[in-house]
Amino acid sequence: MMSFKVVTLLTLTLLAGCVQGDEAAGNGGGDPPDPPTYDYEEQEPNNGLWTAQAITVLPKWDSRTIQGHHWLPADTDCYWFFIDPPAGVDTLRFNLVLETDPTLLPKIRLWQTTYDVTGNSTGHILRGTWVGEDGLLFIDEFDVAYGGQLADNDLIIELIPWGGIRDTPLVDDEYLLDFWCN
User: Fold this and answer.
1) Over 50: is that where the pLDDT of 24 sits?
2) How far apart are CA 132 and CA 107, in angstroms?
């Protein structure tokens, strides 16, 4: 008889917990859920290589997310990363996933800054261009060179206005940019 009471008590406790869980989830009214949070959010102006938004120091071994907006079809966004690898490392393996509206073709260029012998920046070197499809672009283990304090010490991600939509009216499009190193 004792086990029947224990089973009944456990069943009632579980049912009470389920009912309370539904009310906490918003089914019985209350506050809406908090909006998602990201590691970084886009800040303007960041529309050129010289005005790129500073994000963080690489390498980052765990995935980080930048949330941004493009004003289509003409808003380029740039993000700047300083490179400070462990001693003896001259190459980072960089990974990136860009997600946006599935009707768009995401396009990215990766750049590094060039310097003269006195340490003044003189321009940028294009390291690669990628185009995705269906709103998704994935760069898997791209080797980013590190040359020390005056060479290859940064990485700039340039998100280019989406290809193939010149006739699109001005639209605000949100994107998520995840990045990490191996």
Assistant:
1) no
2) 6
Residues facing 71 on adjacent strands: 172
Q: Are 162 and 129 in contact (CB under 8 A)?
A: no
d(C-alpha 55, C-alpha 162), whole Å: 22
The runs of H, that is alpha helices, within the chain are 2-24
Residue 35 DSSP code = P
DSSP E strands, 116-169 = 121-131, 136-145, 154-163
pLDDT score, position 26: 47
What are the C-alpha distances in Å from 117 to residues 68, 149, 153? 36, 11, 14
Percent of the chain with pLDDT over 70: 76
Q: What is the pTM of this model?
A: 0.77
What pLDDT shows up at residue 143? 96
Tell me the residue type at 91: T
Q: Is 178 exposed, middle or buried (0-12, 13-18, 19+ CB in 10 A)?
A: middle
Say yes or no to pLDDT of 162 above 70.
no
